[in-house]
Amino acid sequence: MSALLQLFRSSSAFYGGNAAFIEDLYERYLKDPESIDLAWRRRFDAIHAEAANEVPHGPVRENFERLASESRTRAQARSVQRLEPAAAERQAAVLRLINTYRYRGHQMADLDPLKLRQTPKVADLAPSYHNLEDSDLDQIFHTGSLYAPDRMPLKDILALLQRIYCGPVGSEYMHITTTAEKRWVQKRLEGYQARPELEPADRRWLLTLLTAAEGLEKYLHTKYVGQKRFSLEGAEALIPMLDELIQRCGRKGGKEIVIGMAHRGRLNVLVNILGKPPQEIFAEFEGKVPMNPRQLAGDVKYHLGFASDVETPGGIVHLALGFNPSHLEIINPVIEGSVRARQRRRGDRTGEQVLPVLIHGDAAFAGQGVVAETLQLSQTRSYGTGGTVHIVINNQIGFTTSNPLDTRSTLYCTDVAKMVQAPVFHVNGDDPEAVIFVTRMALDYRNQFGKDVVIDLVCYRRLGHNEADEPAVTQPMMYKKIRERPTARAIYADRLIDDGVLTRDDAVRMIEEYRGAIEQGVVVARPVLCGLEKSYRADWHRCHGNDWRAAADTTIPREQLAGQAERMLRLPEDFELHSRVAKIWAERRKMAQGDQLANWGFAENLAYATLLDAGFPVRLSGQDAARGTFFHRHAKVHCQQTGREHTPLQHLRSDADAPQGPFVAIDSILSEAAVLGYEYGFATAEPNALTVWEAQFGDFANGAQVVIDQFITSAGTKWGLDCGLTMLLPHGLEGQGAEHSSARMERFLQLCAEHNIQVCVPTTPAQMFHLLRRQMLRDFRRPLVVMTPKSLLRHRLAVSSLEELADGGFQVVIPETDPIDPAGVERVVFCSGKVYYDLIEARHARGLTNVAIIRIEQLYPFPKDAFLAAIARYQDTEEVIWCQEEPQNQGAWDQIKHRFHHLIEQGKQPYYVGRSASAAPAVGHRSVHVAQQEQLVDEALTGRINPKMNRRIPPQQPIDEPVAED
């Protein structure tokens, strides 16, 4: 027999009578391929083609096992048919019992290190439930599809099932509807009996990692007493799990791993996995960290990210740990977006090169909605990342004051993952070898099927929620057991000593060596590689040191613009548009030729076309982004005869031309938090792509407020992160009720400081065109928040010429555009947004020439110079008014009025004209809305004030410091 077959026969847990038959055929094939049947010869040819230079643990072994299983199943079926009825019934009962263990064995698995809860009795796991008696235990039965010898005594079948499904690994996978996936998991679980193949050296390294995990926490606990660090103690197995994940990922061709996690264990991961120098951690504890000039505020040590490069058997793997605020799971979509951008940059369409890893808490995984939202993104076309490895650090209690009965309504904290048919592998955190087994299986499943997978690391908190917490106050019984229990490292060290893998002196020496390394402050993780050429990384350096006034030439030659407009309107042959879309297309053709003024949808699409033509990628997403909520964009069109989809902006150039930038328009899932977080993550990893998220209505952004507060507006000042994300938020009070009227610009303006974001309210298509181009063409990247219109999309006055698109630029302030003599102006009205058109139409209707109207198109950073230039024309004007349609406590006024007081001349005071303060964004009756709108327009233009309206703002004291951000 060949050495290949000897190795297979000795190592395969599947060997049985049919395997011998397959082996005999294979021996004959090796000697003379023509001596066996053509069908078998083709199978062995295929196996060799797949498995060149492989040992039986590769495709050869897998194919042998598959062929043997198929043959065995057929033979068993024939055998069962020959059984007597009673025997056949017992045989069927055994097969049902096997299947029941696959479904429900996890409920009796040995998962809890603390043994806090009594193992439940699952009735249908008992042989008697299936009418099998004690006398049947010694009887031999066919094992069916169980990866085992094809005939075994029932007692041995039971023992095998209990080792596989009721040991330290509890597996949930039978909810998966795809048979190939279920059979894959069965094969891995049953073939290896839920245990890894570890050499003595591997086991010693496993203890080394546990020693590091425990050693760091003990050192910090004694040196920095009482300081928060969110210790990993009780879940030390996370460190060998991550190490195995990284090394195996690299072995299988992975190039990058992006990790998202909350607080618990973060410092341990930073030091023992990513290789952050311990002295940097110590300096953070001691408050001696020099302030990075780009991190104006900084952040606590257990929120910070880090990046490094490590060696693996397959080459270098880049590791990145994302910055994360205290909102726990909100990091999930941010990491996924970052991964998608990295995959795009590498041309990694299947996710083989870049792996997302998300580390969760048990209560947070079950309780926070963004987890479910992110899972729903996982298999969609434009958000998938080839599968995510989820690791749940399951303390069995969440925050230590909780009762698990109050933290969820499901059996497991991981049950939410079943909605995307992700397999869940529960594992006892005090059995590190079982942890290694599920880690390998989880990564291999992800790589094989491109889907999410969950590892539920069942452990405990040796300390409280943080080091100042006393958990025994609310959990006395749990913490009595914890105080009595040795650590996972001690348990495993004793196990290795008993197995003769090392001596007790060796185990003690590991502790001493790690302690010595920590005290010296040297890197204690696997060697971190330095000085590498990192061509795969995004380059942000050109954007550093600039501000919003950085030069941006957004002009474009008129002929070039017309050509791009024509190309973006081309359609395939025999492509029939919907009649309403066909009308829009006909109008756009006139706009492209200069025969009709450009509207909003045309100008916006043309802005994308010009950026794509210049090579910039454009990514546009939102719940109705492709068509546009207001039927205005039509970035994708559909053939009415065939249903075929066409995206014109993807076809601006012919195949013979140089490639354009890629364009994608995504109709997202009905989520704000996950989708906006995803797009933010994408934008932070891709400085040269225009990344746009559009809310269906502006106030939908409320559902993503955590992303806005913790990332978009503050990440720059906390962590020094740049981001060029663009948010389009439809805004405007139009008598449709309180909802969907306001994008809550006041909330964004309240968050403005230190040039962190840009808030703009463009009022013409040309302004939108140049604003989008400015976002990419200048060397400055900050999030751009745009209050986009609704009714203005088709307003007869809200139009622009091709010349304005070609030759203009974004105006932060638009001065008076009518030919009004400044000497005759008695009142200057400032405004932003849609109310301008109400004011201008009323002024034209009344023939007024004594009122100038100035639009502030960029509310932040406040354009001081442009503001002063616009008002300087009206030196003799005494009245300066701010007019807005939003209630006084909303909109822009409360956030910008100090600018007016500071910038206008002494002796003049600004007036507020608009709606009175209100708890709701808008009234619910259109008739009331119209009356209010008429009143505020009348008041702004003629001074006829409604006495019920709060019109006059008392003068304020001059602000003490200059407006530095201007």
TrEMBL record:
Required cofactor names: thiamine diphosphate
EC number per UniProt: 1.2.4.2
Domain Transketolase-like pyrimidine-binding per the UniProt entry, residue ranges: 598-795
Domain of life: Bacteria
Keywords on record: Oxidoreductase, Thiamine pyrophosphate
Residue ranges that the Swiss-Prot or TrEMBL entry lists as coiled coil: none
Record InterPro entries: 2-oxogl_dehyd_N, 2oxoglutarate_DH_E1, DH_E1, KGD_C_sf, ODO-1/KGD_C, THDP-binding, Transketolase-like_Pyr-bd
Positions of the UniProt region annotated as Disordered: 947-966
Pfam name, any one: Transket_pyr
Record's keyword annotation contains Nucleotide-binding: no
Protein family (similarity comment): Belongs to the alpha-ketoglutarate dehydrogenase family.
Role, per record: E1 component of the 2-oxoglutarate dehydrogenase (OGDH) complex which catalyzes the decarboxylation of 2-oxoglutarate, the first step in the conversion of 2-oxoglutarate to succinyl-CoA and CO(2).
Record protein name field: oxoglutarate dehydrogenase (succinyl-transferring)
Source organism of this protein record: Thiohalocapsa halophila
Native organism taxonomy: Bacteria, Pseudomonadati, Pseudomonadota, Gammaproteobacteria, Chromatiales
